[in-house]
């Protein structure tokens, strides 16, 4: 039994000495020498960042640069009439709460000789007929055909009168 213990101690000690003894650390020593030889303070300082300056867009109320400028010839400008004015007492329809530019015609429906126009806007597709109102400027639908919806708007002329302005919403072709 004593011999077995002695042999096992010799075997363990020889395996431990084989792991640590005879190892060559020359590559590690060479790397450490290279790191120590580097000059001190060779790290570049961080760049200086300018503080953020907030920008306020002040041209929101001006004309869009993507629309052509409106040239008004004061001599040829239409004068409003005191006879034309919108009916302020009637109940406004749902589609009058939106700009007319936000609508596009997408089709027509016909039923028993009555023609309806289909307009997309205001969150969906809506069916309109002659006599309905559309847009914020008291737009009154006067005609509907397969290619367009004719609307007459009543707009102020800036001098206390009102003008009738014809507009049309053309059919949007599938793109």
TrEMBL record:
<feature type="signal peptide">
    <location>
        <begin position="1"/>
        <end position="18"/>
    </location>
</feature>
<dbReference type="Pfam" id="PF04351">
    <property type="entry name" value="PilP"/>
</dbReference>
<keyword id="KW-0449">Lipoprotein</keyword>
<dbReference type="InterPro" id="IPR007446">
    <property type="entry name" value="PilP"/>
</dbReference>
<protein>
    <submittedName>
        <fullName>Type 4a pilus biogenesis lipoprotein PilP</fullName>
    </submittedName>
</protein>
<keyword id="KW-0732">Signal</keyword>
């Amino acid at each position: 039994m004593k011999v077995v213990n002695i042999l096992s101690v010799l075997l363990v000690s020889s395996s431990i000495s084989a792991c640590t003894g005879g190892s060559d650390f020359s590559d590690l020593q060479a790397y450490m020498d290279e790191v120590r030889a580097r000059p001190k303070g060779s790290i570049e300082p961080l760049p200086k960042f300018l503080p953020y300056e907030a920008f306020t867009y002040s041209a929101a109320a001006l004309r869009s640069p993507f629309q052509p400028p409106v040239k008004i010839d004061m001599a040829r400008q239409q004068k409003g009439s005191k006879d034309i004015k919108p009916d302020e007492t009637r109940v406004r329809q749902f589609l009058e709460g939106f700009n007319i530019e936000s609508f596009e015609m997408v089709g027509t429906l016909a039923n028993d000789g009555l023609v309806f126009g289909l307009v997309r806007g205001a969150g969906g597709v809506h069916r309109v007929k002659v006599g309905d109102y559309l847009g914020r400027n008291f737009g009154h639908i006067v005609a509907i055909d397969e290619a367009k919806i004719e609307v007459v708007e009543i707009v102020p002329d800036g001098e206390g009168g009102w003008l009738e302005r014809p507009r049309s919403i053309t059919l949007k072709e599938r793109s």
